[in-house]
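Support request from a user on the community tier.

User writes: "When I paste my C-alpha cells into the form, the page sometimes reloads and wipes my input. The last time it worked, I copied everything first. Here is what I submitted, just in case something in the input itself triggers the reload:"
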C-alpha cells in the first residue's frame, strides 16, 4: 500500500479536528475492525524527537479509529496546539493490528503561529 500524501496546517492555539474517511474503489467505507492508529511528526525524519505523537507519556494528539464507518479522527486541544513550537514537520499516520501495519498518510505539517495569546 502506498501512503497518500496529505499536507496540512495546524493553527496554534486552536482546536484541531480532522476526520479522515477510508473508502474502497466502490466508494464504500473500509472496515477497520481490530485496527488502532498512531501518528508521529518530527522536524527531521531522522530525528529521535517527536513534536507531535499519539503514543507514550508525551502524547499530544488523539487518534481514534472507528471501525464501523472507516473513519480516523485526529484531535488536539487548543492547549495542545498552543504548546507546539516548530515551523514545519514531517508526519505519518499508521494503522495496525496484531499482525499488520499500514502507513495510510504522510506529508508535511505547517504550524501557523498565533499572535493572540
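"...and here is what came back when it finally went through:"
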Amino acid at each position: 500500500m502506498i501512503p497518500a500524501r496529505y499536507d496540512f496546517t495546524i493553527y496554534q492555539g486552536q482546536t484541531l479536528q480532522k476526520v479522515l474517511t477510508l473508502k474502497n474503489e466502490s466508494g464504500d467505507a473500509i472496515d477497520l475492525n481490530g485496527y488502532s492508529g498512531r501518528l508521529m511528526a518530527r522536524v527531521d525524519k531522522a530525528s529521535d524527537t517527536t513534536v507531535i505523537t499519539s503514543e507514550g507519556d508525551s502524547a499530544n494528539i488523539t487518534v481514534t479509529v472507528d471501525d464501523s464507518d472507516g473513519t480516523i479522527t485526529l484531535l488536539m486541544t487548543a492547549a495542545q496546539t498552543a504548546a507546539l513550537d516548530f515551523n514545519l514537520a514531517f508526519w505519518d499516520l499508521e494503522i495496525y493490528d496484531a499482525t499488520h501495519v499500514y502507513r495510510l498518510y504522510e506529508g508535511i505539517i505547517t504550524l501557523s503561529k498565533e499572535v493572540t495569546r
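Agent notes: The reload is a front-end session timeout and is unrelated to the input. Helices lie at 78-82. Strands lie at 4-5, 8-11, 16-21, 36-42, 52-53, 62-66, 71-76, 88-96, 101-112. Escalated to web team.
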